[in-house]
């Protein structure tokens, strides 16, 4: 289980917490970013999530020296801390959870101490960045961590490092870091494996596939967090627009996820009142297979079973008809009145 700073609870098989991942689909435009927050809200997402990075926190100078266009590209798509704060405030104004993925300790501090996000999202790329994991863990804030590109041993080590900070408020997301991911690579049974391996933690799914099928299946497997990329226009140039979901499809995804969650229901066998009502219509009751006279001693061949039926919960009167399961109780009993062939036998017609 993971309890967010705003009190929301993430637990396996619980109500899905759906994160609309914006990443850089806003193209560095704050008005576009606000429209994306509005879209996430309209779609029914639980949270809108950004990325807290700058060109300096992503790549080394030597990389940019060899790829000068990359720095200009990243600078264009990055949001400053002040802009992120504005987006957090805007999300709050429309009653939307807001969080981000930080890529430096300064960005962690800003997200936790200034924005006061309900959780910090740790990207898959940080699984082996032990010092960074420890720093985030020591902030004693709820953590949602993705596991793409990581072996199970790497995931275990990352979780142990977070635990070593006495921070056990963690949700772990199954993730495949391919953009977009192909269905054959998803291994959704890893969700079950993660639940069994990390029994104390909430398990979710960061979905990079196209469509909603994998997210729906993940919820059926017990995932309580679903992260899906959102874009207002998936045809635009961007880091992840190709596999991002546009609002119309995202809204349908949320609807489908919630339907699957409702359909999962209870582990215990439960019959609803509506289904119990169907017993009287669909089940059989004992019927005379041939005419019976008052005083006849009933034989098995005198009986058969046909619709309708009523059990002891009601319908045509408590205990009025006799269920097929009691057929042997009638054998050897006397008939108290004449009964026509193909007529239901009532309890009051028999001397028990």
Descriptive notes:
One of its GO terms (biological process) is carbohydrate biosynthetic process. This protein has 352 residues and is of the alpha/beta class. The chain folds into two domains: 2-264, Alpha-Beta Barrel (TIM Barrel); 278-351, Antifreeze-like/N-acetylneuraminic acid synthase C-terminal domain (Type Iii Antifreeze Protein Isoform Hplc 12, Alpha-Beta Complex), CATH 3.90.1210.10. It is 36% helix and 17% strand. It contains 13 helices and 14 strands. The chain has helices spanning 30-43, 55-58, 61-66, 68-77, 81-93, 105-115, 130-138, 152-164, 190-197, 213-220, 247-264, 273-282, 327-330; strands spanning 2-3, 9-10, 17-23, 47-52, 97-102, 120-122, 143-146, 170-175, 202-207, 225-229, 285-288, 303-306, 334-335, 350-351. The strands form four sheets. Strands 5-4-3-10-9-8-7-6 form an eight-stranded parallel sheet. Strands 1-2 form a two-stranded antiparallel sheet. Strand 6, helix 7 (130-138) and strand 7 form a beta-alpha-beta unit. Helix 5 runs parallel beside helix 6 (105-115) and helix 7 (130-138) runs parallel beside helix 8 (152-164). The protein is elongated, with a radius of gyration of 30 Å.
Count up the helices.
13
CATH class wording of the largest domain: Alpha Beta
The succession of helices and strands, N to C, reads EEEHEHHHHEHEHEHEHEHEHHEEHEE
CATH architecture heading of the largest domain: Alpha-Beta Barrel
CATH third-tier fold name of the largest domain: TIM Barrel
Low-confidence stretches: 311-319
Average pLDDT value? 92
Question: How many whole angstroms does the radius of gyration measure?
Answer: 30 Å
* Percent helix range: 25-40%
- Overall number of structural domains: 2
Largest sheet: 8 strands, parallel
Instruction: Going across the biggest sheet, name each strand in turn.
Output: 5-4-3-10-9-8-7-6
Q: What is the assigned CATH homologous superfamily of the largest domain?
A: Aldolase class I
Count of distinct strands = 14
Strand composition percent: 15-25%
**SS class:** alpha/beta
Kindly report how far apart the N and C termini lie: 57 Å
Query: What form results from the Cα inertia axes?
Result: elongated
InterPro entries: AFP_Neu5c_C_sf, Aldolase_TIM, PseI-like, PseI/NeuA/B-like_N, SAF, SAF_AFP_Neu5Ac, SAF_PseI/NeuA/NeuB
Domain AFP-like: 285-352
Pfam family, one: SAF
Protein name: N-acylneuraminate-9-phosphate synthase
